[in-house]
Amino acid sequence: MKLKTTLLSALLVFAGIGTAHAQVGVGTNTPDNAAALDITATDKGLLPPRLTAGERDNISNPPAGLTVWCSNCGSNGEMQVYNGTNWTNMTGGTAANYS
Fold first, then answer.
1. What is the distance between the alpha carbons of residues 53 and 86, in angstroms, rounded to a whole number?
2. What is the spatial distance between Cα 77 and Cα 53, in angstroms, rounded to a whole number?
3. pLDDT in tens, 28-67
4. Among candidates 26, 44, 46, 43, which has minimal Cα distance to 35?
5. What angle do CA 41, 45, 48 make, to 5 degrees?
6. How many CB atoms lie within 10 A of CB 12?
7. CA distance 4 to 18
8. Where is 75: in which H helix or E strand?
């Protein structure tokens, strides 16, 4: 009987995992409902992946919205976003060439 109860409990837990919708908060216990990820800090920033242009170009099938710091683009590096067709800078302009 104990085994049946344990198996039933485990089944109910696993059944609920697929239907749960939650936000993740870093630095907060109350993430905003509109955010999948809510990061709160007053003394730190967000550090995106840092790639060279060659490494960035080796990403196969990047999704629109993928964001990276291109460490050897432009004169000092550049934050870039893939728009579904091309890599652009953060303001939507043409991504800088390799330096």
1. 13
2. 10
3. 999 999 999 999 999 999 999 999 999 999 999 999 999 9
4. 26
5. 135
6. 9
7. 22
8. none
